[in-house]
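Recap slide: Protein-tyrosine phosphatase, sequence and predicted structure.
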Amino acid sequence: MIWQEKCRSIIMLCNITEGGKPKCEQYWPLTAESPVSCSLQSHRFPYKDEDWNEEKYWPDRGVPRTTTLAIFRILRRVNRLTPCVVHCSAGIGRTGTVVGIDMVYRRLELITELREMRHGAVQMDCQYVYMHRILLVVAENLKVHSILTCFLRL
């Protein structure tokens, strides 16, 4: 997949072991002298430690303790030119969350597309904010409806 999609970066959202359980294999060389037979590059980003420290631990089946944008910034930066691989242990919880954030972010460009179709669409900042508020209410109602549906099935 990495070679097929020409990925240049990998974002790992788990530790090799968590709570004494293996979560990921070490797929990179332990030393700089170890031979590597691929064209992937390791990137270090100049983010302040306080931006990244809170994100270093993202618990399995959970979320980071803060809503710092460090992971989002890293994703935006590495995903500009070529696709990147994002993974955790199973590839569904943490990975799905980060990929979902990226997908929703990309859909924010819909207003630009709408304005290309209809000049002046969504004229004011307050209208843009209103759209997002309505969508948050809809999302919350869907969540509540889903929880109630599951509860009623019991």
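The longest helix spans residues 125-153.
The chain has a mean pLDDT of 77.
(End of recap.)
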